Amino acid sequence: MTLKYQHTLAPIQVGERILKNRFLVTRSVSGAFQGDENYPGEAMISHMAELARNGAAIVTCQGADWKKDPFFGPDDDFGPGGGPGGPGGKDPWGIGSFAGPGMGNLEIETRGCKLYYSHMTDEIHLYGSLASASMMGIEPRNLTLSEPPAGVRPMGPPVKTHIASTEELEHLVELMAQRAYAFYQIGFDMVCFYMSYGNSLLAKSLSPIHNKRTDRFGEKTALTKAVFRRTKELCGKDFLIEAQVSGEEIGGYTLEDFVRYAREWEGLVDILQLRAPDMDLAHPTCFNSNEGEPPLTLRYSKALKEAGVSIVTAPNGGFQDLDEIEQYIRNGWMDMAAVARAFICDPEYVQKAQAGQGEDVVPCLRCNRCHCRDNVICYVNPKMGLEHKLERMFPAESAPKHVAVIGGGPAGMWAALECRKRGHSVTLYEKESCLGGQMCHADFADFKWPIKRFKNYLVMQLEKQGVTVHLGTKATAELIANEHFDAVIAAVGAAPKRPAVPGSDDPAILPASEVFGNSAKLGHHVIVVGGSETGTEAGIYLARQGHQVTILTRRKRLATDAQNSHYYGSLDAAVRSEHALQAICQAKTVAMGANSVTYEDADGTAHTIAGDSVVACGGMQPLQKQAIAFAGSAPKFFAIGDCNQVGNIHTCTRSAFSTAMQI
């Protein structure tokens, strides 16, 4: 039988190793599962093993930082865990902790730490996967190659820097190679050197902006080649080297330069993990990527293939769709797919590829919550991070039951699917004529395509999994009781709430959640009261529909509740690109009406803005009374999602999953 994704699932020889398929999982959330231990904990080990069980050919693990090195002296600052505040220290730019739990506190100097790392590599190897160690954060952050360019902000807390001497760089080459050798000794098969976004010394060495040296390290690939060559000398030719590197630099080296660099790395580097020029672009969101559009790093891989570079290419950033990945590999545009979110979203990703079921892969929302430093979650995989304790938390089997689900939003649909997986018969009631709940707004906003895709996926899965769906049916407790269900799950959602501002009860004022698809009901100049993520997105949508938009927020910037890591930057860029949208920050709304809003600025001075329409972003109110009305209509009753406590897609899927596991 011919596999649908035969090129993606085909083995590939890399150096002296044979990889079982073309999936390389990049360093992702493992550090977020880590406490204050200086060794990999149970949660981290279980998660990395789960990635291997899922089918990844290469699993990249959290590395370990150097401690102080006598050569550099006591004031030098190694890796992301060092600097002012150290691990868990404050970010002076106000975007949250720079190095949170598990970031910058792992070590392999002691026997105990080595033992736990060995446990991790052993579990990865049991699934036939290779274990790769991230080499991110293994250099002193206070070293520069030449005088830093004016206005360039370093990654992480500011430190006092000095230009590295030739002797210091030679010592650094040995340090990096020795660290790779330490990983080799405890069972790792390869290392991944961090060379992207201009955020490491190796990355800067490639840059005409950052590297203006006149010694031998002024040659743009000299430092990297020295590190690669020494690593191969210590670890052997069958120990693989991966370089995580940007295919071009903004204002610096070009793609043509990069192709030349790659030719010089042949024989030293085994895999090139290709990244975008900056971190936001490398972690695409709904704002800086479009549905069906090839990831931008694919062009770097194509350029290398067309130039005949022999190094295996693994472009990164937005690769999830199995049909697209198969096309790219079949056409010879790339050799492997460097992914993380695809495996986080769906713990059966490769199994579905093997079964030829690409349409059943759980779509990624590109929210990047899996990449934040605190409270790491996946909106569409409620089991993420619980792999090591699911068996203890929930029974594996349950006798078949007859379950009713009230509400066809994300919580209701996810609960229905989870109940079907456990062998229950499920009937879902939705009062509207279509499924989706609040996710239906994504049908109208072009930048909400990941949510639209997820909604459509859930609707399709309900049909495929045999869930009985009654649309246009307002369920009642009496109806449910008459059907003799064993359990009823109320997922009736929430309703818009008016801001506590005089005049907000004017019926002509539209709630922000009802703007999508109704822009024609609004006048040309729209004032949006409330600059949360919801209000900001409503403003972007209206601006793209041809309205002149003014957003008022009492905060110092818009969307302070949005995810910071690689998401807020693209959202902010989207706001700035809309010339018909302006924001007034530190504005406290004191009154509103159908055509005007009065606010006080930071000094307490009152201003009134006139407009054609007003939109109010006052949050949502859980429909708890409507939910609890179903209590007693079946032996078991559960209220999940927004009708219990207003949240987001993650809180909906998480509560739906945990509830289904209790039935």
Mean pLDDT: 91
Strand order of the largest sheet: 11-10-9-8-5-4-3-12
> What is the number of beta strands?
27
Give me the oligomer status: single chain
Structural class: alpha/beta
Count of discrete alpha- or pi-helical segments spanning 4 or more residues: 20
As a percent range, the share of helical residues equals 25-40%
Separation, N- and C-terminal Cα atoms: 39 Å
* Unreliable residue stretches: 80-103
Main pleated sheet = 8 strands, parallel
Strand content: 15-25%
Radius of gyration: 27 Å
| Principal-axis shape | globular
Using brief descriptors, characterize the structure shown.
single chain, alpha/beta, five-stranded parallel β-sheet, 663 residues, eight-stranded parallel β-sheet, globular
Explain the layout of strands and helices:
Blueprint: H1 6-9, E1 12-14, E2 17-19, E3 23-25, H2 42-54, E4 58-61, H3 111-126, E5 130-134, E6 143-144, E7 162-163, H4 166-185, E8 190-195, H5 201-205, H6 222-235, E9 240-246, H7 255-265, E10 271-275, H8 279-282, H9 298-306, E11 312-315, H10 322-330, E12 337-339, H11 341-345, H12 349-354, H13 390-393, E13 402-406, H14 410-421, E14 425-430, H15 449-464, E15 468-471, H16 477-482, E16 487-490, E17 494-496, E18 510-511, E19 525-529, H17 533-544, E20 548-552, H18 564-577, E21 581-584, E22 588-592, E23 596-600, E24 606-610, E25 613-616, E26 620-622, H19 624-628, E27 636-639, H20 649-660
Parallel strand pairs: 3-4, 3-12, 4-5, 5-8, 6-7, 8-9, 9-10, 10-11, 13-14, 13-16, 14-15, 16-27, 18-25, 19-20, 19-25, 20-21
Antiparallel strand pairs: 1-2, 17-26, 22-23, 23-24
Helix pairs in contact: 2-3, 4-6, 14-15, 14-20
